[in-house]
Design goal:
Blueprint (H helix, E strand, L loop, with lengths): L1 H20 L1 H18 L9 E9 L5 H5 L16 H11 L2 H10 L2 H4 L9 H12 E5 L5 E7 L2 H57 L5 H15 L3 H46 L5 E5 L12 H34 L1
Antiparallel strand pairs: 1-3, 1-4, 2-3
Helix pairs in contact: 2-11, 5-8, 8-10, 9-10
Length: 336
């Protein structure tokens, strides 16, 4: 154990001796590396970029009517509720969709802003690379969503970040309205069909009423009482025949009409809800932090670049000098 410690100790001393021996060359190399990294990371060569961040919580509600107009005894989604993990993941997917990207690119004219030639055959590929490089979104551990934008102009970075949140809200609303319109069309068609069925039943009941059949149970009691009092006559005989012929149909129509009216009332509620979903407008995002123009650049980090460059140059120089020293010794041994 002591032998290993002594060996390590001597190896460490050798390292210090090596550095001291070549200190002048190492200082020169590291100095040159520092100067070059400072020049390369200067604003004249690498344009500084500024970071702006917008933070929001997604809404968990997809239907205004279901949240606001349902029975209070039935638990529904709260339209003011936010912070659900699944909803946050869905919003991130929308933020990463080509549809939303296209709207952002057109809204802020990013082809011109990023100096991409619209006639370039690879313009879409280059735009995709620039978009991914400068614009990103992520779900935080608290189920909120961050939209980060890097740009050479701090105000542009803030405008794009805030604009993306607004575009996301409008895209979500647009998708919901499109689905609500489809639902409205289906419900309207079903409602009209139900109206026609009810009108057909009512028309047939009117025809039976013209034959004197309108309430089989009450009319049967009345006929029985009249027979007991006055005996049989022509009017009673005609009514009996009509009740016998159309009574079952009348009762069936009455029961069917009750059921159809009940179903029509339910459809009317759904129709009103669908109209509200189409015409209503409820924000899908709860903004926690609007993006603002940053006063300090986020890229490049000159300090890290200089430190990394100096350390890299120092290590590389040590390896080269070590190789030169070992190779020189071997050459001297061969000559001697």
């Amino acid at each position: 154990m002591n032998k290993k410690k002594k060996q390590y100790y001597f190896e460490l001393i050798d390292v210090f001796h090596f550095i001291i021996k070549w200190r002048k060359k190492l200082i020169v190399i590291c100095s040159i590396s520092a100067i070059l990294s400072i020049l390369i990371s200067s604003p004249w060569i690498i344009k500084p970029k500024y970071l702006s961040t917008a933070v929001f919580y997604p809404s968990t509600n997809n239907s205004i009517s279901s949240a606001l107009l349902t029975d209070s005894r039935v638990k529904q989604k709260d339209p003011l509720e936010f912070g659900e993990q699944v909803a946050a993941q869905q919003y991130v997917q929308i933020l990463e969709s080509d549809y939303l990207r296209g709207k952002v690119i057109n809204r802020f004219n990013l082809f011109e802003h990023y100096r991409i030639d619209p006639n370039d055959k690879e313009r879409n590929y280059k735009m995709g690379k620039m978009y991914e490089k400068n614009i990103s979104s992520r779900k935080t551990p608290y189920a909120s969503i961050e939209v980060n934008v890097l740009d050479e102009d701090p105000q542009t970075a803030a405008d794009v970040a805030n604009g993306i949140v607004m575009i996301l809200d409008s895209v979500k609303t647009e998708v919901q309205r499109r689905l609500a319109l489809q639902a409205l069309t289906i419900i309207e068609t079903e409602y009209k069909r139900k109206e026609e069925e009810i009108n057909t039943i009512k028309l047939r009941m009117q025809e039976l009423g013209a034959k004197g059949v309108y309430n089989v149970e009450e009319q049967s009691k009345a006929v029985t009482e009249l027979l007991g009092k006055n005996g049989m006559n022509e009017n009673i005989r005609v009514l009996q025949n009509n009740l016998a012929m159309y009574g079952a149909e009348s009762q069936s129509l009455y029961s069917t009409l009750e059921l159809q009216v009940e179903q029509m009332n339910e459809l009317k509620k759904k129709l009103d809800q669908a109209k509200i979903d189409v015409g209503g407008n409820l924000s899908n995002v709860f903004i926690l932090q609007n993006a603002s123009a940053s006063e300090r650049k986020a890229y490049p980090l000159r300090t890290l670049i200089v430190i990394g460059s100096v350390l890299g140059s120092f290590i590389l120089a040590c390896i080269v000098l070590l190789f030169v020293e070992k190779f020189g010794k071997q050459t001297d041994d061969l000559i001697s």
